[in-house]
Design brief:
- The complex is a heterodimer.
- In chain A, 11% of the residues lie in helices and 44% in strands.
- By secondary structure, chain A is mainly β.
- In chain A, strands 6, 7, 8, 9, 10, 11, 12, 13, 14, 18 and 19 form an eleven-stranded mixed sheet that branches. Chain A has a six-stranded mixed sheet with strand order 42-41-44-45-39-46, with no helix packed on it. In chain A, strands 36, 37, 38, 40 and 43 form a five-stranded mixed sheet that branches.
- In chain A, strand 41 and strand 42 form a beta hairpin.
- Chain A is globular.
- In chain B, strands 3-2-1-5-4 form a five-stranded antiparallel sheet.
- By secondary structure, chain B is α+β, with helices and mostly antiparallel strands.
- In chain B, a hairpin with a 2-residue loop joins strand 4 and strand 5.
- The longest helix of chain B is centred in the middle third of the chain and has 30 residues.
- Classes of the chains: A mainly beta, B alpha+beta.
- The interface between A and B is small, with 9 and 9 residues.
Chain lengths: 654, 207
C-alpha cells in the first residue's frame, strides 16, 4: 500500500511538473501570439489603413465607411434614411432623394453595396446599394462620399438579389425576392401560383457620370430571387440568380418553400436580351417609379416620376434564360474570379454545390434538358455540376474568393467560415465566428482580381462580445488574416445597424480622389449668397427666403426682424469657407426639423414655421473656430397681424 | 574673355527665372493645418501655394486684425520690381555682349554685380519693412489681442529668412526657385569677373 502511495505520488509530481511546464509554455506562446496579432491590426496614430470597407447598415438604411485592418469607423453615409446629423432627408435640397411612387419614405433597409468596375476590376468611382423594402437602388459618389442618385425599381418587392454590377459597370442588377402581381392589382393572395411574377431589373449605368436608367426587366416565374452575381471573364454577359420557393407558396414559407429537393440558379444571358432590346424588342408597360438625382453644383436633388418600363418575357428571347437545379433553397450565388464556377450556397443542404460555366454551355449546346418551368429550359443537375464540397458545415450562406484559388464560405448555423479549394473541393481550414455569420467580404471581391490579405465576417448575433449595452446592441464583425494556409482571427469590431454585405478595396485609388471642399465659384444653388454683400431677406406672400452666409465666425445676416406667425421661413445657408474641414451648422430654437451641417462651398436650406411670438436665437452647431460660441443670431417673430417691417443686419448696418 | 562673357550673359539671363518662379516662399503650419498654408512671393504679386491659401490666411488673420494680403495693384513694388529685373537682365546681357567683342572689360561685370547687390538689398529692406507693417500695424478692434510680457502688442511679423513660431503657427520663410536662380545668376557674374581677372593676371607675366 505504502509502495503504491509512493508510486502515485511520484506520478502525481511528474504530472504536475509536466502540467506546469506546459502551462508556462502555452501562456508564453499565447502572449507572443497575441502581441503579434495586435501588431497586425495596429494602425499608428496619424497613419492610414490599407483598405476601405463600405459596410451596409441594413435597417439603418445607410452605409458606413471603415478602415482595415484597424476596424475603425470613419463615416456614416446617409442613403435611404433621414439623417438629422447633417439634414439629409430634412433639408429642402435632399427631401427629393427619399421620394418614391409611394410618396416620401423616411427609412430604408440597405443590403448589398458593390463598387463599380472597369475591365473586371474595382475602379473605386461609385458604390451601388439596394434598398430591400421599397425597392430602390442608390449610387454613392466616392469623390464626395455622398448619395447622388436613387432609382426606384417598379414591379419588384423585396429588392434583395441586388445591387451587383457587371464587369464594366454596364449594368447594376436588381432582382426581386418577393414575387408579386405584375402589374400590381387587387387579387386574392392564394391565387399566387401561376399569377405572381418576379422581375429581374437591368439598370444601365451611363459610363461617364454613372447616371442610372432601367434598360429592361425580365419577368420571371413567381419564385423568390434571393441573391445574384455577374459572370466575369469567360462568363461575362451572363448573370446568375439563386431562387427559392420554386414551390410558389404564399403562406408559411418556412415549411412550404422548403419542400423541393432542388430549387434553381437562373442563368440569364443579358447580352442576348440587350441585343433583343436594342433591336426594339420587349414591351413598354405602364409603371410608376421615382428617379432622384442630386446635382453637385446646384447642391439640390430633383425627383422625377417615370411612367413606363420595358419588360421582357423570357419566352420572347429563346436561349436567354436557363435553370440550373441547385439543392435546397440556395441563398448566396457567387461566381469565382475566373468566371468558371458558380457557387450555390444551399442553405438547407449539407453539401455546397458548385456549377461549371463550361459544362453549362456544353449542356445548352447539347440541348440536354430536364423539362422546363414556365417555358424556361431546366438543365440536368449532373450535367452542370462541377463538384460539391462534402459536409463542410451547417447552413451555408455566402462564398467569397481570394487571389490564390481558394473559396471562403460562411455557415450561419454552425457559425463558422470554411476555407476550401476550388477544383479539388477539399476543406482546408475552418474558423469559428461570433456568432451566426451572414455575409463575409474579401477586399476586391466580386471582381476578377480579389485583393486578398484580409477577410471579415459580418455576424447577426453579438451577445457577449463587448461590454453589455442592454438588450439592444450593435452587430459584430471579425477580421481574419488570410495570407497563410490557415485563417487567423485578428480583430473583433462592432458594426452599425444590421450589416448585410460589404464592399472593400485598397485605399489608394479612392483616397487620392476624395474631395476636400465644394467650389464656391461653381455653386449654382438658386438661393446661394456668395458673399456677405449678397445676403438678403425676401418676402413672397407668406414665404420668407433668407439668403444667409456663414464664415468663421459669424452668420450674415445675424439679426432678422419682420417674421410673422404663419410665415414659412426658408433659411438658405451658404458656407463661404474654402478650407478643408470647416463645416458650419445651423439650428434655430423650436424648429420642427433637423439641423443643417453645411460643408465649405455648399448651400443647404432648412424650413421653419414659427409657432410662437418672441425673439429666437439661432447658432452654429459645429464647433467651427475659436469664436464658435459667438457664432449666433436672433430672429424676431411678431404676431400675424403685426406691422414690424422686414429688416436684416450684420454688425451695426441695420 | 569670350568664355567669361558667355558666363556673364548666362548669369544675367538666369534672372528671367523670376518671371516664372517665386522669389520667396512663406509656409504657415499649425496643429489644425497639417498641410500648411503657403504664400509664394513673385516679383509681380503674391499667390497662394494652393488655390485658396490666400483667402484662408486672410480669414485667419482677421482674428488678430491683420490687413489682407495685398493684391498686385495695392503695392507699387509689384509694378516696379519686374521693370528693374528686366532692366538688369538687358544691362547684364549687353555688358556680356560688349565683353565678348572686347569693348568692355571684366570690371563692368563686377559693376553689374555690385549694382544688382545694392538693388537686391534695397528690395529686401523694402520687403522687410512691409513684413513689419503687415505684422504689427493691426486693427485696434481686432478680436484677439496678444501682448508681449512688457505690455506692448505682439507683432506677427513673419521672419524674413528662416523659422519662427507665431502663436499656434510655425512660420518658415525661404527663397524659392526664382530666388535661387537669381542668386546663382549673380554668383555666375561674380565668377565671370574672377575668371576674367585671373586670365588677365596670368597673361601679364608673359608680356
Amino acid at each position: 500500500m505504502k509502495q503504491i502511495f509512493k508510486i502515485s505520488t511520484v506520478f502525481l509530481m511528474i504530472a504536475l511538473a509536466f502540467a506546469s511546464c506546459n502551462n508556462g509554455k502555452s501562456s508564453k506562446s499565447n502572449s507572443a501570439l497575441s502581441s503579434n496579432v495586435a501588431e497586425k491590426v495596429y494602425v499608428a496614430p496619424g497613419e492610414y489603413d490599407e483598405f476601405y470597407a463600405f459596410i451596409s447598415g441594413g435597417y439603418s438604411g445607410n452605409l458606413t465607411v471603415y478602415g482595415l485592418p484597424s476596424g475603425r469607423m470613419f463615416k456614416e453615409i446617409p442613403v435611404f434614411s433621414q439623417f438629422p446629423t447633417n439634414g439629409y432627408g430634412y433639408s429642402e435640397e435632399t427631401i427629393p432623394m427619399l421620394n418614391t411612387s409611394h410618396g416620401f419614405i423616411p427609412w430604408g433597409d440597405a443590403h448589398h453595396p458593390d463598387i463599380s468596375q472597369t475591365n473586371g476590376e474595382l475602379d473605386g468611382r461609385f458604390i451601388f446599394m439596394n434598398e430591400n423594402n421599397t425597392p430602390r437602388i442608390a449610387k454613392i459618389d466616392l469623390t464626395t462620399f455622398e448619395t447622388t442618385e436613387i432609382i426606384e425599381v417598379p414591379n419588384s418587392a423585396g429588392n434583395h438579389s441586388s445591387s451587383f454590377v457587371t464587369e464594366n459597370t454596364e449594368y447594376v442588377v436588381a432582382g426581386t425576392r418577393f414575387s408579386v402581381p405584375i402589374p400590381q392589382r387587387d387579387m386574392p393572395i392564394n391565387e399566387y401560383k401561376g399569377n405572381f411574377q418576379g422581375a429581374l431589373s437591368f439598370i444601365a449605368v451611363e459610363p461617364e457620370h454613372g447616371g442610372m436608367e432601367i434598360k429592361f426587366q425580365v419577368l420571371m416565374p413567381g419564385f423568390n430571387y434571393d441573391l445574384s452575381h455577374p459572370g466575369r471573364g469567360k462568363s461575362h454577359g451572363w448573370f446568375f440568380f439563386t431562387t427559392y420557393n420554386t414551390e410558389e407558396a404564399n403562406s408559411l414559407l418556412e415549411v412550404n418553400a422548403s419542400q423541393n429537393d432542388k430549387d434553381f440558379i437562373a442563368a440569364v444571358n443579358w447580352k442576348k436580351i440587350e441585343d433583343y432590346v436594342n433591336n426594339g424588342g420587349g414591351t413598354m408597360m405602364p409603371a410608376e417609379y421615382a428617379h432622384n438625382v442630386y446635382d453637385e453644383t446646384t447642391h439640390k436633388a430633383t425627383s422625377t416620376i417615370i411612367k413606363e418600363v420595358r419588360v421582357i418575357n423570357p419566352s420572347e428571347v429563346p436561349g436567354a434564360v436557363y435553370f440550373l437545379p441547385t439543392p435546397k433553397s440556395p441563398h448566396g450565388c457567387d461566381v469565382d474570379p475566373t468566371g468558371e464556377y458558380i457557387v450555390g450556397n444551399g442553405k438547407l443542404s449539407a453539401n455546397l454545390t458548385v456549377h461549371s460555366f463550361t459544362k453549362m454551355l456544353a449542356a445548352i449546346e447539347g440541348k440536354k434538358f430536364d423539362g422546363e418551368a414556365y417555358g424556361i429550359p431546366i438543365l440536368k443537375f449532373e450535367d452542370v455540376l462541377a463538384g460539391s464540397v462534402e459536409q463542410p458545415g451547417l447552413g451555408p450562406l455566402h462564398t467569397e474568393f481570394d487571389d490564390k484559388g481558394n473559396a471562403y464560405t460562411t455557415f450561419f448555423i454552425s457559425s463558422e467560415v470554411v476555407k476550401w479549394k476550388l477544383g479539388t473541393w477539399e476543406v482546408i481550414d475552418r474558423k469559428p465566428t461570433y456568432y451566426s455569420v451572414g455575409h463575409l467580404t474579401i477586399p476586391g471581391g466580386n471582381s476578377r482580381k480579389p485583393q486578398g490579405k484580409y477577410m471579415f465576417a459580418m455576424n447577426k448575433i453579438t451577445k457577449d462580445r463587448y461590454l453589455p449595452t442592454g438588450p439592444e446592441m450593435e452587430h459584430s464583425a471579425q477580421l481574419y488574416d488570410i495570407t497563410g494556409d490557415k485563417m487567423e482571427l485578428l480583430l473583433d469590431f462592432p458594426t452599425h445597424g444590421e450589416p448585410h454585405y460589404a464592399a472593400a478595396m485598397r485605399a489608394d485609388i479612392i483616397k487620392e480622389r476624395s474631395k476636400k471642399i465644394y467650389s464656391l465659384a461653381e455653386n449654382k444653388h438658386e438661393y446661394a449668397a456668395k458673399s456677405d454683400a449678397d445676403t438678403k431677406v425676401v418676402r413672397q406672400g407668406n414665404d420668407v427666403h433668407i439668403y444667409m452666409t456663414t464664415i468663421r465666425s459669424h452668420f450674415a445676416p445675424d439679426n432678422i426682424e419682420g417674421i410673422k406667425i404663419g410665415d414659412k421661413v426658408y433659411f438658405h445657408v451658404t458656407n463661404l469657407e474654402q478650407d478643408f474641414d470647416v463645416p458650419h451648422g445651423f439650428a434655430v430654437l423650436g424648429q420642427n426639423n433637423s439641423e443643417l451641417l453645411i460643408m465649405p462651398g455648399q448651400t443647404k436650406t432648412s424650413v421653419w414655421e414659427p409657432t410662437k411670438v418672441g425673439v429666437w436665437p439661432f447658432y452654429c452647431t459645429d464647433f467651427c473656430s475659436a469664436l464658435h460660441q459667438e457664432m449666433q443670431g436672433y430672429v424676431r417673430v411678431s404676431a400675424k397681424d403685426s406691422n414690424v417691417p422686414l429688416k436684416w443686419s450684420l454688425g451695426d448696418d441695420f | 574673355m569670350k568664355k567669361t562673357s558667355i558666363i556673364m550673359i548666362i548669369g544675367s539671363l538666369l534672372l528671367l527665372g523670376l518671371f516664372k518662379f517665386p522669389l520667396w516662399n512663406i509656409m504657415l503650419g499649425a496643429p489644425q493645418y497639417p498641410d500648411p498654408l503657403g504664400m509664394n512671393i513673385y516679383i509681380n504679386g503674391i499667390q497662394g501655394v494652393s488655390e485658396f491659401d490666400i483667402q484662408n490666411i486672410d480669414g485667419l488673420n482677421h482674428y488678430i486684425g491683420m490687413k489682407t494680403i495685398p493684391k498686385p495693384e495695392e503695392m507699387w513694388e509689384f509694378s516696379l520690381f519686374p521693370k528693374v529685373i528686366l532692366g538688369m537682365v538687358v544691362l547684364g546681357v549687353a555688358i556680356g555682349i560688349l565683353g565678348f567683342f572686347g569693348k568692355v572689360n571684366y570690371w563692368f561685370f563686377l559693376g553689374w554685380f555690385l549694382l544688382m547687390s545694392v538693388l537686391g538689398i534695397l528690395g529686401m529692406y523694402d520687403f522687410n519693412n512691409w513684413l513689419i507693417d503687415y505684422g504689427s500695424n493691426l486693427d485696434p478692434h481686432a478680436i484677439i489681442k496678444v501682448t508681449n510680457p512688457d505690455g506692448t502688442p505682439m507683432s506677427y511679423k513673419p521672419p524674413l529668412l528662416g523659422f519662427q513660431k507665431l502663436l499656434n503657427f510655425d512660420v518658415t520663410s525661404l527663397p524659392h526657385i526664382g530666388g535661387y536662380l537669381m542668386f546663382l545668376g549673380m554668383s555666375l557674374t561674380l565668377f565671370a569677373f574672377w575668371l576674367g581677372r585671373r586670365g588677365t593676371l596670368r597673361k601679364k607675366p608673359m608680356n
